[in-house]
Write a structure and sequence with these properties.
The complex is a heterodimer. Chain A has 18 helices and 18 strands. Chain A is α+β, with helices and mostly antiparallel strands. Chain A has 5 domains: 8-105, 2-Layer Sandwich (Uridine Diphospho-n-acetylenolpyruvylglucosamine Reductase, domain 2); 112-229, Uridine Diphospho-n-acetylenolpyruvylglucosamine Reductase, domain 3 (2-Layer Sandwich), CATH 3.30.465; 233-342, Alpha-Beta Plaits; 348-422, Alpha-Beta Plaits (2-Layer Sandwich), CATH 3.30.70; 440-496, no CATH class. The longest helix of chain A is centred in the C-terminal third of the chain and has 18 residues, at 405-422. Chain B has helices at 10-22, 73-82, 100-106, 113-116, 119-122, 151-155, 188-198, 223-233, 241-247, 295-303, 326-339; strands at residues 27-30, 45-48, 55-59, 64-68, 85-86, 123-129, 135-139, 164-171, 173-174, 178-185, 205-210, 214-221, 236-238, 260-264, 277-281, 286-290, 308-311. In chain B, strand 11 (205-210) and strand 12 (214-221) form a beta hairpin. The chains are: A alpha+beta, B alpha+beta. The complex binds flavin-adenine dinucleotide (2 copies). One flavin-adenine dinucleotide (FAD) binds at residues 47-48, 83-91, 94-95, 106, 126, 148-150, 154-155, 157-159, 161-162, 164-166, 214-215, 219-220, 341, 430-431, 467 of chain A. Chain B: Keywords: FAD, Flavoprotein. Chain B: Residues 1-175 form the FAD-binding PCMH-type domain.
Chain lengths: 499, 354
């Protein structure tokens, strides 16, 4: 079932007259860049989920917040859908445009407004790149902790909208744990502050609610993030295993020993070989799995913990444990992991990245399930895994030019996500639902839960103009998806009429 | 061994909510009622969560515990303690009365807050009885989950105004290997200056409070880092009981008969000139104030530094929670109307309109 917006199941969109809208924008916002020709619109037809494209009606590129405010007021009056876009690196089609809507690109808001070392925060515009914040804080020996692998490109606004994570989440948290405040514009173009420079603010925790809300509740116009002192030292251990199960068990043992590593990542053989081929990180290509365990903090503790973790790893059956000799080797070990996606991309014309999470103890069973599915569908799957916090990234290899392979890859991906839900996990740990996992939402949530989500949306955007069709499926979509997708022997949403 | 009384009373809670919905009668949700003093008075039938208690699942290597809302925090703490783990938000237990649901609904965290996060930061999943009379599940037992809106974290600090929390999954962490407390004689201004400076350095602080006379610090981490920091910071050793006294509000400061205010401010804010006595917690980000001063005056002073003030003394103030800006209040009302259309859950507890 296609994930492109389908008015029949996703809801009827307002009809917008493109030339009238364009004329009005030019009149009301004469100094804002507006793209409208087929050629200019083309680069914006997808985000990081490039298998799906839709040409937006118009693309706007504001440079001042007043322009965004004005634009939103106009769109609200004229009933025009608005899809926000940051850097467009999202992997779930969250910034996939609509033919009948405006794509609001926030990427030109690149100003770092303030870095405050005493208060340990940075106040930035939403288009600032994730890595640029840490770079601006570096002179004070401070940094911004969440580090998605896309950090050289993705925007902080997009990070907030997706609640992005990274390889250091287990110890330092996700985006939501590292925010103080966001400024937003509501669908009506009204300014609102969520959170504050203090550690909490009065009323409901709307900052938490907005984090990860995928541009559905408001437009983020400014972000204040917490900064942390840089750890004195960071050391990385690379452990090899002759089975994925043993590697999985080792993760639990490290935590049972009372140690929370800064990063704890796992890769399976296919991913190891791909990364080694691409980056020459020095990975053992004959290992069935490797664990990368980073310990960071104050020097004396890190030495001590390295020794403890080494013992745990060997007891858990590691065939080899290597400590990165120096900073250069540490960076190399990480480069292999951080480039795992493009590395796997070299093995195959296309790949499809999944993002399910599971309780860690379920890892052996789920990996077995994935390998069975891989065989059943005749598609290779490489596994890269934020092992510390149970976030899997199975990468499905396929060739979109072979008829039917994209479909097969998607069906396989959907099955993997359902497996994650079945063992008590989630369909997405950090990439978001967007359009990509809209159908799988019907497996994770029942109709009453979806109704409550729609109620939240209605509180902030009753007319449904912000990013229509993303994140939360309509009950009709679920009914239809469910009817082609019977599981546990019964139809989900039996109460809804089929059509 | 910890004695545990487990009972699933969710069916009865759901029935009581549905009954209230049918008769449009307000409910006053109550756990241990240790926080009855905090917030506005609610008229309504009591919904007592305490029969719904017990730990549903706990696997220390997963770093997650799931328990029913009526579980006493003391029981939860004891079970975690046996496995060498803890709730990092360090909630007050109030003689064993406080419940898990109450902790999450009031969202208040103890001295470790600035370093290890607030209650909401630990919430991974909740079960909730809604204003539509349904018992639903949001989030789960996994560390990362961005499917749908983050309703679980929204419930933290919602004071029961959005529904009845019946079950919570929380992230837990191993206890630190080493813990040591220090007392450094200095005035509040210097203490705040020092804290702003140390905050930029990798010092293993896990609590910092100034009681008007001296700065109290707690160091937590490995043996090496704690010893090095102790060497560097100097001062004299302090009994760790200070922190429990602070957390449970038993320090002599709290015995002052004047009204108690909680001021939440940016941590690097200097000494706040307000009538009365102050006690600094959270490394400067939370200031307790005992004062007869007028609420408006207190709020103006705190708002001027981008902070807010909550009155912690029952009946002293008509609006104990800091007033919301107009657009925020409007969206609070809209959210309340959407999630609790009949307005049966703790109406007016936080704000008259919500
Ligand atoms: C190679 C690669 C590796 C990646 N690794 C990770 C990883 O390790 N961890 C991780 O979490 N993600 C990862 N991602 C995914 C992606 O980078 C993140 O989701 C990122 O947060 C998206 O930011 P963006 O600026 O590109 O947002 P976009 O893709 O432009 O938008 C994402 C969503 O945010 C909304 N949005 C954007 N800006 C705003 C705004 N100002 N106001 C309101 N809504 C807005 C959009 O509507 C959309 O729903 C990876 C992506 C790639 C390509
Ligand atoms: C004197 C005093 C000082 C305090 N100071 C601190 C402090 O400094 N730091 C700190 O961390 N804590 C503090 N607390 C907070 C208190 O210890 C915790 O918040 C406690 O967990 C409240 O639990 P309870 O079961 O007693 O809640 P109650 O008092 O019964 O309820 C508190 C609020 O939560 C709602 N509620 C309770 N259960 C549920 C539920 N299941 N679903 C939905 N809503 C629910 C109630 O309606 C009420 O609005 C203080 C409490 C007291 C009495």
């Amino acid at each position: 079932m296609s994930i492109l917006y389908d008015e029949r199941v996703d809801g009827v969109l307002p009809k917008v007259d493109k030339s009238a809208l364009l004329a009005e924008l030019r009149e009301q916002l004469p100094d804002m860049d507006v793209l409208h020709t087929q050629e200019d619109l083309k680069p914006y037809e997808c985000d990081g989920l490039s298998a799906y494209t839709t040409t937006p009606m118009l693309v706007v590129l504001p440079e001042r917040i007043e322009q965004v405010e004005r634009l939103l007021k106009l769109c609200y009056q004229r009933n025009v859908p608005v899809v926000a876009r940051g850097a467009g690196t999202g992997l779930s089609g969250g910034a996939l445009p609509l033919e009948q809507g405006i794509l609001l690109v926030m990427a030109r808001f690149k100003h770092i407004i303030e870095v405050n070392p005493e208060g340990r925060y940075a106040r930035v515009q939403p288009g600032v790149r994730n890595l640029a914040i840490s770079q601006a804080a570096a002179p004070y020996d401070l940094y911004y902790a969440p580090d998605p692998s896309s950090q050289i490109a993705c925007s902080i606004g997009g990070n907030v909208a997706e609640n992005a994570g990274g390889v250091h989440c287990l110890k330092y948290g996700l985006t939501v744990h590292n925010l103080l405040k966001v400024e937003i514009l509501t669908v009506e173009g009204e300014r609102m502050t969520l959170g504050s420079d203090a550690l909490d603010s009065p009323g409901f925790d709307l900052l938490a609610l907005f984090t990860g809300s995928e541009g559905m509740l408001g437009i983020i116009t400014e972000v204040t993030v917490k900064l942390l002192p840089k750890p004195q030292v960071a050391k990385v251990l690379l452990a090899s295993f002759d089975s994925v199960e043993k590697a999985g068990r080792a993760v639990g043992e490290i935590i049972a020993a009372g140690i929370i590593p800064g990063g704890l990542e796992m890769m399976d053989n296919l991913a190891i070989r791909a990364a080694e081929d691409f980056i020459h990180a020095g990975y053992p290509v004959d290992a069935e799995a490797i664990l990368l365990c980073e310990l960071d903090g104050v020097e004396a503790d890190v030495h001590d913990e390295c020794d403890r973790v080494k013992v745990v790893l060997i007891q858990a059956g590691a065939t080899e444990v290597r400590l990165a000799r120096d900073e250069a080797e540490r960076v190399k070990f990480w480069a292999g992991r951080k480039n795992a996606f493009p590395a796997v991309g070299r093995l195959s014309p296309d790949y499809y990245c999944m993002d399910g999470t599971i309780p860690r103890r379920e890892l052996p069973g789920v990996l077995k399930g994935i390998s069975d599915l891989s065989e059943e569908f005749g598609l290779r799957v490489a596994n890269v895994f934020h092992a510390g916090d149970g976030n899997m990234h199975p990468l499905i290899l396929f060739d979109a030019n072979q008829p039917g392979e994209l479909d097969r890859a998607e069906t396989l991906g959907g099955k993997i996500l359902e497996l994650c839900v079945k063992v008590g996990g989630s369909i997405t740990g950090e990439h978001g639902v967007g359009r990509e996992k809209i159908n799988q939402m019907c497996s994770q949530f029942n109709s009453d839960e979806l109704i409550l989500f729609h109620a939240v949306k209605a509180a902030f955007d009753p007319s449904g103009l912000l990013n229509p069709g993303k994140n939360i499926p309509t009950l009709h979509r679920c009914a239809e998806f469910g009817s082609m997708h019977v599981h546990h022997g019964k139809l989900p949403f039996p109460e809804l009429e089929r059509f | 061994m910890v004695v545990r009384h487990d009972a699933d009373a969710s069916a009865a809670l759901l029935e009581q909510v549905n009954h209230a919905l049918n008769s449009s009668a307000a409910l006053r949700i109550q756990g241990g009622n240790s926080k009855a003093f905090l917030g506005r008075k609610v008229e309504g039938d009591v919904l007592d969560t305490r029969a719904h208690r017990g730990i549903v699942s706990y696997d220390p290597t997963e770093l997650v515990i799931t328990a029913r809302a009526g579980t006493p925090l003391a029981e939860l703490a004891a079970v975690l303690d046996e496995a060498g783990q803890m709730l990092t938000c360090e909630p007050a237990q109030f003689d064993g009365a406080a419940t898990l649901g109450g902790m999450v609904a009031s969202g208040l965290s103890g001295p470790r807050r600035p370093w290890s996060g607030a209650v909401r930061d630990l919430v991974l999943g909740t079960r909730l009885i809604t204003g539509m009379g349904k018992h639903l599940r949001f989030g789960g037992e996994v560390m990362k989950n961005v499917a749908g809106y983050d309703l679980s974290r929204l419930l933290a600090g919602s004071f029961g105004c959005l529904g009845v929390i019946t079950e919570v999954s929380l992230k837990v962490l191993p206890k630190p290997r080493q813990c040591l407390s220090l007392r450094l004689e200095m005035d509040a201004a210097l203490a705040l200056q020092k804290l702003a400076e140390w905050g930029q350095q990798p010092i293993p602080l896990s609590a910092a409070s100034h009681d008007g006379k001296a700065l109290h610090l707690r160091l937590e981490g490995g043996e090496g880092s704690v010893a090095a920091a102790r060497e560097r910071l100097g001062g004299e050793l302090l009994e760790s009981a200070y922190w429990a006294g602070l957390r449970e509000q038993r320090l002599s400061f709290f015995a002052d008969p004047r009204p108690l205010w909680r001021l939440s401010v940016p941590s690097h804010t200097g000494v706040l000139a307000l009538p009365g006595e102050q006690l600094i917690d959270w490394g400067g980000a939370q200031r307790w104030l005992k004062s007869d001063a007028d609420a408006v005056l207190i709020r103006q002073a705190v708002a001027a530094v981008d902070g807010h003030a909550t009155c912690f003394t029952a009946g002293h103030c008509d609006n104990p929670f800091h007033p919301l800006a107009a657009p925020l209040l409007r969206y609070h009302r809209q959210l309340k109307t959407q999630l609790d259309p009949q307005g049966i859950f703790n109406p007016g507890r936080m704000y008259a309109e919500v």
